[in-house]
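Subgroup meeting minutes
Present: P.N., E.W., G.H.
Scribe: E.W.

1. P.N. recapped why we're keeping a running log of single-chain structure predictions: easier to compare across weeks, and new members can see raw inputs and outputs side by side.
2. G.H. added today's entry (328 aa).
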Amino acid sequence: MIIVTGAAGFIGSNLVAALNARGERNIVAVDNLTRADKYRNLVDCEIADYLDKTELVDRLPSLRHVRAIFHQGACSDTMETDGRYMMDNNYRYSLRLFEHAQANGIPFIYASSAAVYGGGEVFVERREHEGPLNVYGYSKFLFDQIVRRRMASGLTKQVVGLRYFNVYGPRESHKGRMASVAFHHVNQYREHGHVALFSGWDGYGNGEQSRDFVSVDDAVAVNLHFFDTPQVSGIFNCGTGRAQPFNDVALAVVNAMRAKQGRPKADLATLVADGEIRYIDFPEALKGKYQSYTRADLSDLRSAGCHHEFASVEKGVARYVDWLTRAS
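Output recorded in log:
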């Protein structure tokens, strides 16, 4: 049996689908379907059972022969201001699952976040480079610290934390405003014929704030790498190792949509001049709480034996646009 929390969510549902592609069917999917529309992410997946997240902790002692727990469930809203909810949902709940996994010799692979790095410019998995800018980042940061202390004192079984950078791809529509910029750009282009990016701020020009954008297919592949190498534990960055400006995402989306209309590719300057890429004022609410630059350092990931090749924005976003337009 394999347990996947957040199974109806973005990365979780893609992970369930990938496990199915390997022939895995004995999967217990765990989630919170208060947002009922998330169920659609599991319609094409095969699972053995579904549990609400509130049931899982009580049911854990009765679940036998658990091969691994993929803990992908969390509140990922970086603008959430209810700190008590965030800490209970992301920190305390994770700790309960982790303690059970260690007590019962179960591999535990969980979702951390690049949000732990805050506004820094060094993205190496070391305490001195970490300083979250919001309570979401802090909830992930604190759990990582607990895991580090446990690793230092000795583990009974594998534990792997994956610090996801900006993940995009299929099955994220339920995330609303927290869905990827690529997802929003496709919808904007369909509705308005143009996409919008933030104007310059924090020393960056229009649309030049840069992130490490990673395809969900790649994030899932890294999860499965560690599932296949249960002797390896640690906290690892999960990104491409490249920082690309938001302009690159907009350019990839618009050109993919133009191609579907039978129109030729155009460069950034042309699309800005033609009004297909536009810039809006940087929101006051995000100032001081926004990562203007992220780039995963992959040294530890590579040293751990994961040599997966990550897709560039140009390749990954074009593939995603194709999926979105075929799915609708």
